[in-house]
Amino acid sequence: GVRLMALTDHDNTAGIATAAAEAGRLGIDFLPGVEVSSEWNGIGIHIVGLGIDIRNPELQAGLDRIMEFRDWRAAEISRLLDSAGIPGAEAGARELAGSRMVGRTHFARWLKDSGHCRDNGEAFQRWLGRGQVAYVPSDWIPMRDAVSWIRQAGGIAVVAHPGRYKLSAERLRELFEEFRDAGGGAIEVSSGSQAAADREHLGKLARQLNLAASLGSDFHGPEIGHAEIGQLAPLPV
To answer: Which H or E run contains 222?
Structure first.
């Protein structure tokens, strides 16, 4: 029953052309997008860009910068796992990813599939999480840069799944205010990867701060556990 779909892969737009063609074949309206990994006051914040021009040079130069860091981090995680007696992690993670975009979840899946742990959660607890043997700190770009790239590409910047960030109500409002002042346009009020109970509070904040509200499944694949496509709770009235 989905009539409009966006593809917002992390830090790259490589899948947009294929997705747009398939959506057209199926009669689904399609919105090109991206989810940019950024940082605000030491906290990782994901900024979704909707309706972007993927040919924009400023956006693509910025995404290339992030992907270069991701390449380095993948190699470093693999090196640390190899030192711990687990060789071949990067090759395995890249095979699972099927593209250049390799994240820690791909390493977690590979560790599980290779019999080193029971599930993704244990992979993070034993190997990949903060303070563990293969933890590599993130070095993301400032949130303002992510918003700027998206705006230069003609898109609308959206704070992704804000209910997942461990912020007090006061700090969350501060984040939204700085995001709005940087040119951000919307808050993801209803997301498949945050508690449904957050919707009312986030909707209220969006109205107070004159920001638009968006909703999205945050669907990463059938095995991830986020909301199924087409099954998301509506925006609050």
So the answer is: none
183 phi-psi bin (left φ>0, alpha ψ -120 to 50, beta other):
left
Provide mean pLDDT across the span 129-152: 96
Q: How far apart are the C-alpha atoms of 155 and 54, rounded to whole Å?
A: 10
Q: Is 23 in contact with 6 (CB distance < 8 Å)?
A: no
Ramachandran area for residue 197 (φ above 0: left; ψ -120 to 50: alpha; else beta): alpha
C-alpha–C-alpha distance, residues 136 and 127, integer Å? 10
Contact predicate 102/70, CB 8 Å: yes
**pLDDT tens digit sequence for 52-91:** 999 999 999 999 999 999 999 999 999 999 999 999 999 9
Q: Is the pLDDT of residue 221 over 80?
A: no
pLDDT classification of 5: cutoffs 50, 70, 90: very high
CA proximity to 106, closest of 60, 71, 139: 71
pTM of the full predicted structure? 0.91
Q: Give strand ranges (E) for 74-162.
A: 141-142, 156-159
How far is the first Cα of the chain from the last one, in angstroms, to the nearest whole number? Answer: 21
At residue 229, the pLDDT reads: 80
162 contacts: CB under 8 Å, gap ≥ 6:
172, 175, 176, 187, 188, 194, 198, 202
Cβ neighbour number for residue 204 with a 10 Å cutoff: 12
